[in-house]
Amino acid sequence: MFAGLPELGISNGEDLKETLTNCTEPLKAIDQFQMENGILLPTLQSALPFLDLHGTPRLEFHQSVFDELRDKLMERVATIAEGKEEDRYGKLEELLEKSFPLVKMPSIQPVVMQVLKHLPKVPEKKLKLVMADKELYKVCAVEVKRQIWQDNQALFGDEVSPLLKQYIVEKEAALFSSDLSILHNFFSPSPKTRRQGEVVLKLTQMIGKNVKLYDMVLQFLRTLFLRTRNVHYCTLRAELLMSLHDLDISEICSVDPCHKFTWCLDACIREKFVDGKRARELQGFLDGVKKGQEQVLGDLSMILCDPFACNTLVLSIMRNLQELLSQDSLPRDSPDLMLLLRMLSLGQGAWDMIDSQVFKEPRLVRTVDHLSYVNKLADLEVVTRFLPAMMSVVVDDHTFTVEQKLPSEEKSSLSYPTTLPETFNRYLQENRVACEMGLYYVLHIAKLRNKNALQRLLPGLVETYNDMAFGDIFLHLLTGHLTLLSDEFGSEEFCSVVFDGFLLTSFSSKENVHRHTLRMLLHLHHKVLPSYMETLTKTLEPPKQSSEPVKELYTQLTEKLEAQKKSPPPLEETPSLDLGLHPVTVPTTASTPTTPL
To answer: What tens digit of pLDDT does each residue of 409-421 get?
Structure first.
């Protein structure tokens, strides 16, 4: 407990023991030891008997004086460090040399740690001693740990790894949340709110102003993204940079070439829309990548691969298409749409770019018009073939709607189409940018409560690029959107399309689909046709090898069904809805659809 005192020429318990062992008059030896090792203040000696008269033990007195002096010393250390004297760090290093031998003493340790904390460069020898001792490493300040970590990537990785795992667990938990709502979903929290999460704040604190540590974290995120393809690591990459931006850590923000791009995109994510002005800013950043600096495209693609960025881009594309439709304009004639597609394509190709280490944005040869911003021949076809096919689906729906409003004598025998254009299906299966837009179009149709269009589209999602329609993010959004059509679940035809035609086609091979289906039924079971619900209950019973979350959800569902039999639930009101996509009002002509996209 008192190791280190002899090194400083101060007697400890062993010295007292030896003195008492060899002396002939113990009381005099004790008095002498107290005189030599007590507080060296002559006027104090005459005052100490007064404490004895009040029954105050000497230990209590000395401890209170010690605590007071220690606090004063720690305050003085902070004052010296914050001062402007040229030799301030020299003074602290001198104090460190004197106090470090006592670092294992609990009462002195806070002083040593305070000195270490305020030294911008702790002597290498002291850092190694702290790192080698688990107890010291555990209690030292993060400022000291940063100096240790910057030269010990493996140790830093051990510290960061649990936080990264925690982050992914939290994101996945949000996707499987028991809440099912179109108004409060995975994308509802603002960027600023998300950056207040425990993991982001801890990582921000661990990095401080240390560029080397920041680079290490980014490398961890790239490696994990490559290993797992988990897009939540892309979200963390953007959130971490913006968290440092919020704290005005210019030492890092000024050297990260993605900073201004991420800052601008963050504002778009907050608004859930990329307006014309910000679109031009983002375009300027992309066009400004100089020869020899192409590697920055890897980080930009990761930032654009963030689901929150992707969500904003596709919502903006949908709104842009809506405006083009109302103006009788072609997609290829919109520079803003071309840029949005360019960024969406760059984000969707993030994994391939980082994996191949080919940091080149695939694009057509530059021409004088804005088609130079469409990526690759395949993505040019997204504009010239896929989008027209998607627009034909919109026109079919509009034609049928107008037909239903005609007087009976003017109606034709037109029935609602049940199949999708072959081109539409093919691009959903072969092109990830087209697939992303197709999925969001399905969500948009669900927002409009368009049952006919939804029944036509859902079966087409069984086969999509890389099974994107069965990804957690889309299923999380779709199940929330389907709550708007809750009354339709009383129809066997609608249930058959949603379940038999889509969800049940893969639930046995994809456990996440099983979970999302059960999540939805927990909220909508009382709306589902009873005979169909009975069949679903049997079909969705988890096999023995299922995970605990699936079994728990199924148990909750069966309990609710039992409770429902005893006491039917009251009628629920349909929640109010803000679609977030505002229709553009234009003069109606014979060629202009009046319903929004």
So the answer is: 666 767 788 889 9
